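FORM 7B - TANDEM STRUCTURE REPORT

SECTION 1: FIRST PROTEIN
SEQUENCE AND TOKENS:
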Amino acid sequence: DMLDPERLIQCPLVKHHRIRARRFPYHLVKCKESNPEIAKKLATCPFNARHLVPQADLSDHIMKCNDKAFVEQDVVSRACESPQEQLNNGSTWQAPPCAEDWETDLLEGSESTFVWASLHYSEQNS
């Protein structure tokens, strides 16, 4: 929880577990592993992975989930951007130039072929 990381949250898998908000995601992973039969009966909210609800209640939860508003707001704001703005807001990373040319190396053939353990083998037989 961004507002109070020390707030206690009830575990959706084991009701008597109370976990600090800052540790809650870690607890969910461990608790799912420790309680696979209970975890099978729960579904994860598509808007917030911390929301585990009974599978039968998932569609109702999706309709009412508070985190849905954040996703919808992001989608709407992205839709209002021009394609050029969307490109500008994306990553600008480019791969550095590479001087290696594996095809040429293969065509020329390598004089020194590396064979794993050949040095170790020759030392034992010396």
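SECTION 2: SECOND PROTEIN
SEQUENCE AND TOKENS:
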Amino acid sequence: FDPRHYLGTHCYSLPKTGPHRLRFLLESVKDLRETLKKKGSTLVVRKGKPEDVVCDLIAQLGSVTAVVFHEEVREIL
């Protein structure tokens, strides 16, 4: 979870993620973790800036040979 997603927007300082969306995200992550667990896998969840968290996780795991990511699509107004 990137803390920057829970700050106010540049315009009007409205929250990017309100309480209802946050609840939905948390429930979705919990469900995904439970589904993966039933299939013999797991889900790593961290809070922080992705550029920091991923580097720390790679260092912690030590045997990472590749990292794949998906960039968030942003609207252009």
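SECTION 3: OBSERVATIONS ON SECOND PROTEIN
The domain at 3-61 is CATH 3.40.50.620 (Rossmann fold).
The CA atoms of residues 28 and 62 lie 29 Å apart.

SECTION 4: SIGNATURE
Preparer initials: ____
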